[in-house]
Amino acid sequence: MALTAKRRNSKSGRKKLLSVKVQSQRTRRERLRWLRTSSAWVAAIAVITAVAWQGGAFALDRLVYENESFSVRQLDYRTDGIISVGQLEQWGGVRSGDNLLKLDLLRIKRDIELAPRVKAASVERFLPDTLQVRVAERVPMAQVWAWQRDGGGVTDYDCVRLQLDETGHVMSPIDGRSVVAPEKQAEWSLPVVSGIDLNKLKSLAPGRPAGLPKLQAALGLIGEFRRSPLAGVVDLRVIDLSQPRILRVTTGDGGQVDLSTERLARQLNRWGRIRAHGQKFGLAIETVDLSVTNNVPVRWMLSPTVADIKSGQNMAGK
Q1: HSE value, Cβ hemisphere, 13 Å, CA-based, for 235
Q2: Which residues share a beta bridge with 285?
Q3: Closest listed residue to residue 249, CA positions, set 229, 221, 215, 273
Q4: 183: left (phi over 0), alpha (psi -120 to 50) or beta
C-alpha cells in the first residue's frame, strides 16, 4: 500500500511540473509576442513622426521661408534724432528681399541697441512685406576733450572727444556720414567738462554709464541750468572739475562762477538775481563765488554790450 501511494505521489508531482513548464512557456511566448507588437508600433510611430517632421519642415520652407510673398519690400526705419536711415539699416543688417518671417527680431533689436548713441529700439514685422524699426536716441548734454597717447610713439597724441547724456551714458560723436543734416546740429557748442584726470577718463568707455560722482554733478548742473531763467541768456561754455567740491563755470562772456555741488537750483536763482542787479548799471559778472551761503564775493566788469559801445565811441573820437 505504501509503495502504491508513493508511485501515485510521484506521478502527480510529474504532472504538476509539466503543467508549470507549459504555463511558463506559454507566458514567455505571450510576452515575446507583446514585445514584438510593441516594437512594431514604436517603429511605426517613429517612422510616421520622422516623415511628418520632414514633410512639415519641407512644407514650412516652401510655403513660408522660401515664399516670395513674404519677402521684405519695405524697410521702415525712423528715429527721433539725427542718425541717418542708412546707418540704422547698416546696424540692423536686414536687406530688401530677406524673408520677413525668418528674421530674428531680437537679434536686430540687440544689434541696433549696441550703438552707444541708441537709447532703445523696437522692431516689428507687418505681413506680408514690411519691417518697422523705431529708435530713440540719447541726447548729448556735455562733451569731454582730452589728449591721450595713441601708442605710436612718445610724442604722438590723439584728441579724444566724448559726449554724455543726462544719465552719464558715454557716447562717441556721430560723424557726418551717419547723421541727417550735420551742418544744422549744435553738438559742437555743448558745454565742455574739463579737469578730469586722464586715468579716470580711461574708464569712460562708449556704451557704458560714467561712474564719476563729480561728473554726474556737472551733468546735474547742466540740467538745472536748462530749467532756470538763465537758460538762453547766459552761454555755459566750460565746467571745470579740478577744484575739490566746486564746479567752476566759465560763461560765454568770460565770466567765472563757482558753485557748490549741492543746492544747485538755489545757487542758480541767486546767480540770476546778481546778474540782473549788475545789468542795471551796465555791468557783467567777472567772478562770483556762489558756494558760500552769506556775503557772496562778486567782481564786476563792463557788460560786453557797453564795452563795445565805448570802444566804438573811442574809435569815432579818434
Answers
A1: 7
A2: 300
A3: 221
A4: alpha
Tens digit of each residue's pLDDT, the chain (318 residues): 554 545 555 555 555 555 656 667 777 777 778 877 777 788 778 777 766 666 655 555 555 556 677 788 999 999 998 899 999 999 999 998 898 888 999 999 999 999 999 999 999 999 889 999 999 999 999 998 866 666 555 566 667 788 899 988 988 877 666 766 545 456 678 999 998 876 676 667 777 888 788 889 999 999 999 999 999 899 999 999 998 889 999 999 999 999 999 999 999 999 999 999 999 999 999 999 999 988 899 999 998 765 555 555 555 555
In CATH, what class is 68-137?
alpha beta
Determine contact, residues 249/256, Cβ cutoff 8 Å.
yes
Q: Dig out the grid coordinates for 133 from the structure.
A: 524699426
7 Rama sector, left if φ>0, alpha if ψ -120 to 50, beta otherwise: alpha
From the centroid of its chain, how far is CA 238? 27
| 89 CB burial (10 A radius; 0-12, 13-18, 19+) | middle
Pairing of strands 130-137, 118-126: antiparallel
For residue 270, what is its C-alpha cell?
A: 541767486
> And the C-alpha cell for 173?
560723436
